[in-house]
């Protein structure tokens, strides 16, 4: 009896060591999936010094038109509330700034951080800039407390640096449902070498015995209210089934791992193991153009425009399974997983392939980008302490 009680206490302690961040998702229409703009954004993200084609960014929300999942954080004392995109493909935190100019429409339409209203803020005055396809995000660096939980347990100290944005590029962020971006990649790719907030959380073993975070993304189109959940400092077995397959990092920049193979009906669509990046900041699943074209042909997808491929919606249940091998384990996407069924507002849905060709040259490529098409099907664990990424079959309901 006593041993059972000890086990119970251990389980309670493990649960207490996890903080849960609820995620909100955006349900996209076809018009919001601008494949050309998404491609330009990803090239800028993953090709050093890439000069994007600005014509791709001339409509609506561009740089982050492919972002779907975001959640709450607080900054300052007393806490100021923000909704941020949790992006494993970048490494900086930024939110709009209270002193942004009136002409910055994106800033005026979102929650703004005010250093003067926080007793723990230090305004460094250091300039900050991130270049996007449609322009640059400019601002200054402030230091303050950043929290992932309203109970003040999972917080940094007041020395945490982040960017307070005084200029946001063009119309890119005007229509965004989130206020800013919280990068969760490695510090090596951080602008201005600013450590990301998770570094401080991971360093505190008293509250974070497992230095990792995990994503369970809801892909149920009928469940708009529940976008999923991010857990910090532990995993949640209710969100996945079976064992977690681990793959070590190739390098500590992005969450970059080796993808062993991609197969359909026994035919391989990769030339041996290839680098892949697990990126919560993109909805799509991308790979080298030649390989993706072969996959599109195999699934019967028809090229439309700007890299988009469409399938007949009634064919989705009959589409072949696509098998990804990671960590020595097979992960299978069914047609309903890799096809985006979108509303066009006029009754009949449109079905787009969730695959997109994207050529990243050496030395950063060639590579595959495993975005939400993949992460939404498989519970994804980003293990900072052991420098690895893990996947398991996601539970359908949690």
Automatic annotation (TrEMBL):
Which InterPro entries does this UniProt record tie to the protein? Aspartic_peptidase_A1, Aspartic_peptidase_AS, PEPTIDASE_A1, Peptidase_aspartic_dom_sf
**Signal peptide as annotated in the record:** 1-17
The Peptidase A1 domain extends over 69-392
UniProt key word ATP-binding: no
Keywords tagged on the record: Aspartyl protease, Disulfide bond, Glycoprotein, Hydrolase, Protease, Signal
Q: Which cysteines are joined by disulfide bonds?
A: 100-107, 313-351
Q: Which GO terms describe its cellular component?
A: lysosome
Q: Which Pfam families match?
A: Asp
Q: State the active site.
A: 87, 279
Q: Which GO terms describe its molecular function?
A: aspartic-type endopeptidase activity
Cross-referenced PROSITE patterns: ASP_PROTEASE, PEPTIDASE_A1
Q: Which GO terms describe its biological process?
A: proteolysis
Q: Which family does it belong to?
A: Belongs to the peptidase A1 family.
Entry protein name:
Peptidase A1 domain-containing protein
Organism this protein belongs to: Caenorhabditis auriculariae
């Amino acid at each position: 009896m006593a041993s059972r009680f000890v086990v119970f206490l251990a389980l309670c302690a493990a649960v207490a060591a996890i903080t849960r961040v609820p995620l909100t998702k955006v349900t996209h229409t076809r018009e919001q999936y601008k494949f050309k703009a998404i491609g330009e954004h990803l090239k800028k993200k993953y090709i050093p010094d890439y000069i994007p084609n600005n014509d791709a960014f001339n409509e609506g929300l561009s740089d982050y038109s492919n972002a779907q999942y975001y959640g709450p954080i607080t900054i300052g004392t007393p806490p100021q509330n923000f909704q941020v995109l949790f992006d494993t493909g970048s490494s900086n935190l930024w939110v709009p700034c209270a002193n942004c100019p009136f002409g910055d429409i994106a800033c005026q339409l979102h929650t703004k951080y005010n250093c003067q209203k926080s007793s723990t803020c230090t305004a460094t005055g250091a300039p900050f800039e991130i270049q996007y396809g449609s322009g640059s995000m400019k601002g200054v660096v402030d230091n303050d407390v950043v929290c992932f939980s309203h109970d003040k347990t999972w917080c940094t100290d007041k020395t945490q640096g982040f960017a307070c944005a005084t200029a946001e590029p063009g119309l890119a962020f005007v229509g965004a449902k989130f206020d800013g971006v919280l990068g969760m990649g490695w510090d090596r790719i951080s602008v201005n070498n600013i450590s990301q907030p998770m570094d401080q959380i991971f360093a505190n073993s008293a509250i974070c015995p497992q230095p990792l975070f995990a994503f369970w993304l809801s892909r149920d189109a009928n469940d708009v209210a529940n976008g999923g959940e991010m857990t910090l400092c532990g995993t949640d077995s209710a969100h996945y089934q079976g064992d977690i397959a681990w793959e070590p990092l190739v390098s500590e920049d992005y969450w970059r791992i080796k993808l062993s193979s991609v197969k359909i009906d026994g035919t391989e669509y990769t030339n041996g193991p290839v680098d892949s990046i697990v990126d919560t900041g993109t909805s799509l699943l991308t790979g080298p153009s030649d390989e993706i074209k072969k996959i599109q042909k195999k699934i019967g997808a028809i090229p439309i425009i700007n890299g988009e491929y469409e399938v007949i919606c009634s064919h989705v249940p009959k589409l072949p399974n696509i098998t990804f091998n990671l960590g020595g384990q097979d992960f299978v996407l069914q047609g309903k997983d890799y096809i985006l069924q979108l509303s066009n507002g006029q009754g009949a849905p449109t079905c787009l392939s969730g695959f997109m060709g994207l050529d990243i040259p050496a030395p950063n490529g060639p590579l595959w980008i495993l975005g939400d098409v993949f992460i939404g099907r498989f519970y994804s664990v980003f293990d900072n302490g052991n420098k690895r990424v893990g996947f398991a079959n996601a539970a359908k309901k949690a």
